[in-house]
Each structure stands twice: as structure tokens, then as C-alpha cells.
Design a protein that fits this description.
Shape: elongated
Order of helices and strands: HEEEEEEEEEEEE
CATH architecture: Beta Barrel
Largest sheet: 12 strands, antiparallel
CATH class: Mainly Beta
Helix content: under 10%
Distance between the termini: 43 Å
Number of domains: 1
Length: 261
């Protein structure tokens, strides 16, 4: 299977600005007095990662789909913590393994895994037309082993792959609160992905394994979106983000719902 990155056109970006809200907890939901807010989040992203082979750097596309349950807690006014648990699906393009009995150029899609994460938000400037928060997030995708048969061999052969990757982000969130029911925001941040992909190969009696360390080529992201208050207790939140890098730009889309008790 092959995964192909989609273009981030202007139309898609505008639609996300209209329907999506702030990323990772930066804007207050309708019931700001709530101490506990559960929600659901979906995220799709395409990032370019680098890896080294024989001293030479190469790149691959890493595409991920994340679905998670979010549990947000207000520790004190202006200070929020959130935990995340869910499912991740990660695919790679052109990830090459040569130190195996048979060299493999992997183009694999849909490797599932367990998603775990934590978030923290601290208000720096609250009230008035504008607010300023600082938001940090850590995510870990613990991939489950997936097996493929090797085509074209006269004997039985297979490979088994397992990706594990982490993401850390930190940055300020500037939100505009002059419109009733809609809160647009700007979220520049440091955003970094790193991890590894382990591949094991078996061809009858021949066995081998190789591991690739992967690191994101982009370390800065710029998110833009809006919060929509659908009711006094239900908030829709999302974001469209771009990650500039040498030779191009990566992207991600995020949508979250939060219910205030």
C-alpha cells in the first residue's frame, strides 16, 4: 500500500477556519467554571522525516491519523491539564532498509498503535478583547507490529514492522474574543517529531532486523483556527497548521469537541 500526501489548498484552509477551533486547549469553552471537560479529537497530518543511511541523509513522508479521548481538568483558574488516550495509524513512504537478507524499500500504510498524551495550558493574559496563553503538548504513538508477505519470491518470506514516535510542541496562543460565539486564534509553536521504525525480515532460515531513527525536518509550526460555541456546554475546536521546512511545507488538521459539566 502507498500513502500519498494531499495538497493543502486555499479552499480547505478556509473551510477549516470556518469550522475549526483552537488547538490543544488554548481558548476557554462556554462553561469556564467547569473543572472537568471530556472530549474527542481527530487529527490528520503529513510530515517529512529524515533518516541516515551509510552517512547520507534521506527523507520520507510520514502520514498519521490520530483519534483520541481527551480528559481536561482545571487545576485552578487559568491553569489546565489534559490527558489523552486513543488510537494512531501511521504510514511511511520510501523508508529503505538495506542491512537485511533482502533489501526492502518500505511504502506501508495504516500501521496501528496506541496513542498516549498529556497537555498543559497556562493563561498569561486573560479577559478583554485578546487573551494570551502558553500551551505545551507531548504525544507518544506506540505502534503495533504489522506483518507483510514479500511478493515475487520462490520461497516464503515476510517482513514485520513496528513504528514508535513521539511529538513535543510548545508555544503561545493569541486569541481574539471580540465576536460572540466564535473565537479565532493564532498558534505559533516549536513542534518536533522523533522516533524509530524497526523492521524484521524472515526468508525461510534467513532472519535479520534493522532499525531506522527518524526526525522531523520541520521544527516550527503555525496554526490558525477558531472556537465555535455550539451550545452553553458544547464546544467545537479545531486547527489547520503549516510546518515550513527546507524544500517545502508540511501540514496537519485537528478537530476537537469538548463538553462542559
Amino acid at each position: 500500500m502507498k500513502s500519498r500526501p494531499m495538497c493543502c489548498g486555499t479552499l480547505v484552509f478556509v473551510l477549516f477556519l470556518g469550522f475549526t477551533p483552537a488547538a490543544f486547549g488554548q481558548a476557554r469553552p462556554p462553561s469556564d467554571t467547569s473543572s472537568f471537560r471530556p472530549g474527542l479529537e481527530l487529527e490528520y497530518g503529513s510530515r517529512t522525516v529524515g533518516w541516515t543511511e551509510d552517512g547520507q541523509e534521506a527523507t520520507s513522508k510520514m502520514t498519521s491519523f490520530l483519534a483520541s479521548l481527551v480528559l481536561e481538568f482545571k487545576i485552578q483558574p487559568g491553569f489546565l491539564l489534559a490527558a489523552r488516550v486513543g488510537y494512531s495509524s501511521t504510514s511511511f513512504e520510501n523508508l529503505v532498509f538495506r542491512s537485511l537478507p533482502l533489501s526492502i524499500e518500505l511504502e506501508a500504510g495504516g500501521i496501528g498503535g496506541l496513542l498516549l498524551g498529556a497537555e498543559v495550558e497556562k493563561a498569561l493574559v486573560a479577559g478583554g478583547t485578546f487573551s494570551l496563553d502558553v500551551v505545551g503538548q507531548f504525544l507518544a504513538s506506540l505502534g503495533l507490529a504489522k506483518k507483510w508477505d514479500i511478493p515475487g519470491l520462490a520461497v516464503e518470506g515476510s517482513v514485520q514492522g513496528k513504528p514508535t514516535w513521539m511529538k513535543a510542541s510548545l508555544g503561545p496562543v493569541l486569541a481574539y474574543r471580540g465576536w460572540e460565539g466564535v473565537t479565532p486564534f493564532l498558534y505559533p509553536r516549536l513542534d518536533y517529531i522523533w522516533g524509530k521504525f524497526k523492521l524484521e525480515e524472515t526468508i525461510q532460515e534467513l532472519k535479520g532486523s534493522e532499525e531506522r531513527d527518524i526526525k522531523a525536518k520541520a521544527i516550527f509550526g503555525l496554526g490558525l483556527g477558531a472556537d465555535l460555541e455550539l451550545s452553553t456546554r458544547l464546544l467545537l475546536r479545531g486547527e489547520a497548521a503549516l510546518y515550513p521546512r527546507e524544500g517545502g511545507t508540511d501540514y496537519s488538521f485537528t478537530v476537537r469537541t469538548l463538553f462542559a459539566f
